[in-house]
Design a protein that fits this description.
Layout: E1 4-8, H1 12-24, E2 28-32, H2 35-45, E3 49-53, H3 61-70, E4 79-83, H4 88-96, E5 101-104, H5 109-158, E6 168-173, E7 181-187, E8 193-200, H6 205-208, H7 211-223, H8 228-242, E9 249-257, E10 262-268, E11 273-277, E12 282-286, E13 306-309, E14 315-319, H9 335-345, H10 351-361, E15 371-377, H11 383-388, H12 395-402
Parallel strand pairs: 1-2, 1-3, 3-4, 4-5
Antiparallel strand pairs: 6-15, 7-8, 8-9, 9-10, 10-13, 11-12, 11-14, 14-15
């Protein structure tokens, strides 16, 4: 297919000269001797390139250029301005209007043709860029659909089986579509409340992919009444088997036995568990005692639960490191001390208030990592509180229904 060129020049001899040169090189040429005819020809023929004298009847060269560049019919049409004058202002007006190049008379034929070839190369590059953008746009659209499908599957596997736990105040915010943090909660057949909060290395899909086997193991074993240490060891074995060496799973498991007000906890590579003494408004820390899961074999890990008696006014706070690692404008971290201070002194210790405080501290006003915060109000899951709720069956009634 021939490349097309529109020549706009009031001089018949100039148009004839340029037409002869260009037709010898197999270009198809259209001609106009004024601005109005040039606009009509451009809209009908959509030439690949326009060569225009700077001063033409009825329109200025700058006005012609503006029309061509504003046309929605053509993706990109280069314009070469030809001038025999030396009025720099007129040339600048045309260039400001969008002209791509200009050539001053008298000029050599070789320079003129070199500029034509150069402008067509630019046009081809613009076309290729537009096609690439369209391809990328389609790929992005397909990727969004795939992500949405994967997100629905992920949600079904990881969060679908989760049970509502009374006294649970939480905030979960992924930094991308998929969350590298995992928050699972379930009640055992005999009434124990078990919560698992974990943080895979990084964020996004690579970090979240391990959440599915963790959730499957957790829910299946809790519902069978398996001991917490056995659940942790099975999760560790599975992650050690499937995870690449650069991905691991820091986690906290908490078991609340409401009948006896016993609290058991296991911390593997996470931030310290914060235990709030309600009577004295003081926080004590339960630090990590073992490395994250998925790194060592079971035989190399000492699986033990820390056990303590809780009072009804006490609370437990667990969170991932996305909270403490938030930076302010001076690159100071929010840090653990600020979290502890908040829970010891704030009149309203709700998780959403902590989130607002961290966001105010952040230079960007948001989190740069997946963030999960869980506050467990033990008063609402104590044995007395459970007995007072009309909608809660006894453990024996629940077990009988399941059997």
């Amino acid at each position: 297919m021939k490349k097309t060129i529109l020549i706009v020049d009031p001089s018949d001899s100039n148009r004839l000269y340029l037409s002869i040169i260009l037709q010898k090189l197999n270009y198809q040429v259209f001609q106009a001797d004024n601005g109005v005819d040039a606009l009509e020809l451009f809209d009908v023929q959509l030439p690949g390139l326009v060569i225009s004298e700077l001063e033409i009847p009825f329109l200025s060269g700058a006005q012609l250029v503006k029309h061509i560049k504003s046309s929605k019919s053509a993706l990109y049409t280069p314009v070469l301005i030809v001038t025999g004058g030396v009025d720099a202002g007129l040339i600048l007006d045309a260039i400001d209007s969008g002209a791509d190049d200009y050539i001053q008379k008298p000029y050599s034929e070789s320079l003129f043709l070199a500029k034509i070839l150069s402008l067509f190369r630019i046009k081809e590059m613009a076309y290729d860029l537009d096609e690439t953008k369209k391809t990328i746009s389609k790929l992005h659209a397909n990727l969004r659909l795939e992500h949405q499908s994967a997100e629905r599957i992920f949600e079904k596997f990881v969060h679908g089986p989760s049970q509502e736990i009374y006294g649970l105040d939480k905030h979960i915010s992924p930094v991308s579509i998929f969350n590298g943090d995992v928050m699972l909660s379930c009640e055992s057949p005999t009434g124990e409340i078990i919560i698992l909060l974990g943080d895979f290395t990084g964020h996004g899909l690579p970090a979240a992919i391990g959440a599915i086997p963790v959730a499957e193991i957790f829910y299946a074993m809790v519902r069978k009444g398996k001991p917490c240490l056995e659940i942790i060891s099975v999760i560790n074995t599975k992650l050690k088997e499937i995870l690449p060496v650069h991905i691991f799973f820091a986690c906290i498991l908490v078991e609340v036995i409401s009948k006896t007000n016993i609290l058991r906890s296991f911390n593997a590579g996470m931030q310290s568990i914060l235990y709030f003494d309600g009577a004295n408004a003081k926080i004590s820390e339960i630090p990590s005692m073992v490395p994250p899961l998925g790194v060592l074999d079971n035989s190399e890990i000492e699986f033990t639960l820390k056990e303590q008696v809780f009072l009804v006014e006490d609370e437990l706070i667990i969170f991932t490191d996305g909270v403490v690692e938030v930076m302010d404008a001076s690159e100071n971290m929010f840090g653990l001390k600020r979290v502890i201070s908040f829970f010891e002194t704030a009149p309203n210790r709700s998780v959403i208030k902590l989130v607002e405080m961290v966001q105010d501290f952040s230079d960007a006003g948001n989190f740069g990592d997946d963030v999960s915060i869980v506050r467990l109000k033990l008063a609402e899951i104590s044995f007395d509180a459970i007995c007072e709720r009309d909608d809660v069956k006894s453990p024996l009634e629940s077990l009988h229904e399941k059997l």
